[in-house]
């Protein structure tokens, strides 16, 4: 079949049902409905598209727009009343599942000094990325970790965890990232509150960092058997230092600049089975080329300012802003400064895509690898 004939076939036969409704067919469809069945040719292109068609849309959530509203919630509800005092990010195309993008959930949580949320566990995997404030901490299965700005902490599925801010600290805001929509889509969600409402700290504070945070080192004697990273907390300072060192010996990715993945120090794989995380650095004036891939990504600006072009639309961002890139949408990033680097933290569902052999990637070949801005 020639390419021209194939294109006609694709458009006229597969792109839509090439079947003319007749009274007999209409009745046939109605007859099938009584048995909770239907004709595949009426839905084939919807359920088996030629390429991924995300329901999500690119969104930029400006921190300067949301911060006052996040802080206002402190005067309106207590952690005990709300369970978790969070303002969630709602993608216009995914409002039916309260997702920020694809099958990922995101929200901004706030706590005052001396406040703590009850210990709980759930089927969803989660992480927290600290945006501002001091004195934040998280306890995961008895491991207590203190947290500073641009640190992030894991609260894996099934683990008892709780959050709070020490009385000596300041008001803290962090981003929550979870796979709630994915777990719910698989109808596998459980949630439980700790019987004592709080768990005992049974290990030295920050023990995970002291045991597993050595550069390229693994303790010879360990008994970690859990399916997620034992490091639990990933600190900003060593991460940024690693990016700077890496930038001295590599040109980096043409699509993401200097990028490094947070990993499980035991396996070298992602930090959790369903959520991965990365940090990337764009050098002064750097403009990456565009590519697209399956899987959704949530970005938070950890440092600097610039803009990203997502499916032809420009989104200008600065420190603490959050934006998303839906699956199979072309995207490229630009550092708007000629003298300072910019850093983007991201979490994503790429571990799921890769585990299920669904990860595909494609570079933009037109216009020297850059998109034409249409908005």
TrEMBL record:
Its EC number is 1.13.11.4. Pfam families: Cupin_2. It comes from the Bacteria. InterPro entries: Cupin_2, GDO-like, RmlC-like_jellyroll, RmlC_Cupin_sf. One of its GO terms (molecular function) is gentisate 1,2-dioxygenase activity. Residues 108-166, 279-344 form the Cupin type-2 domain. Keywords: Dioxygenase, Oxidoreductase. CDD domains: cupin_GDO-like_C, cupin_GDO-like_N. This is Cupin domain-containing protein. It comes from Paenalcaligenes hominis.
């Amino acid at each position: 079949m020639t390419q021209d004939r194939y294109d006609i076939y694709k458009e006229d036969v597969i792109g839509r049902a090439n079947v003319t409704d007749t009274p007999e067919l209409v009745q046939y469809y109605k007859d099938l409905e009584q048995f909770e069945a239907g004709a595949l040719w009426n839905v084939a292109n919807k359920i088996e598209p030629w390429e991924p068609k995300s329901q999500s849309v690119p969104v930029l959530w400006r921190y300067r727009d949301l911060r006052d509203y996040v802080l206002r919630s402190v005067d309106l509800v207590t952690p005990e009343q709300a369970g978790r005092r969070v303002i969630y990010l709602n993608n216009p195309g995914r409002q039916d599942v309260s997702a920020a993008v694809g099958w990922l959930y995101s929200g901004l949580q706030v706590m005052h000094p001396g406040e703590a949320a009850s210990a709980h566990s759930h089927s969803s995997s989660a992480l927290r990325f600290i945006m501002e404030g001091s004195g934040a901490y998280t306890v995961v299965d008895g491991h207590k970790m203190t947290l500073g700005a641009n640190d992030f902490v894991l609260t894996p599925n099934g683990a008892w965890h709780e959050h709070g801010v020490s009385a000596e600290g300041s008001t803290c805001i962090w981003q929550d990232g979870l796979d709630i929509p994915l777990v719910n889509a698989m109808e596998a969600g459980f949630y439980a509150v700790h019987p004592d409402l709080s768990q005992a700290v049974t290990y030295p504070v920050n023990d995970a960092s002291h045991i597993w945070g050595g550069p390229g080192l693994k303790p010879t004697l360990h008994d970690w058997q859990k399916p997620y990273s034992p490091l639990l907390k990933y600190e900003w300072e060593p991460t940024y230092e690693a990016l700077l060192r890496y930038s001295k010996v590599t040109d980096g990715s043409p699509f993401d600049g200097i990028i490094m993945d947070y990993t499980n120090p035991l396996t070298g794989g992602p930090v959790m089975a369903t959520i991965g995380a990365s940090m990337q650095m764009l050098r002064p004036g750097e403009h990456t080329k565009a590519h697209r891939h399956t899987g959704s990504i949530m970005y938070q600006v950890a440092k600097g300012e610039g803009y990203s072009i997502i499916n032809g639309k420009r989104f200008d961002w600065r420190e603490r802003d959050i934006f998303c890139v839906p699956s199979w949408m072309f995207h490229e990033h630009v550092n708007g400064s000629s003298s300072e680097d910019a850093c983007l933290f991201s979490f994503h569902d790429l571990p799921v895509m890769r585990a299920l052999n669904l990860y595909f990637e494609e570079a933009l070949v037109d216009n020297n690898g850059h998109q034409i801005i249409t908005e």
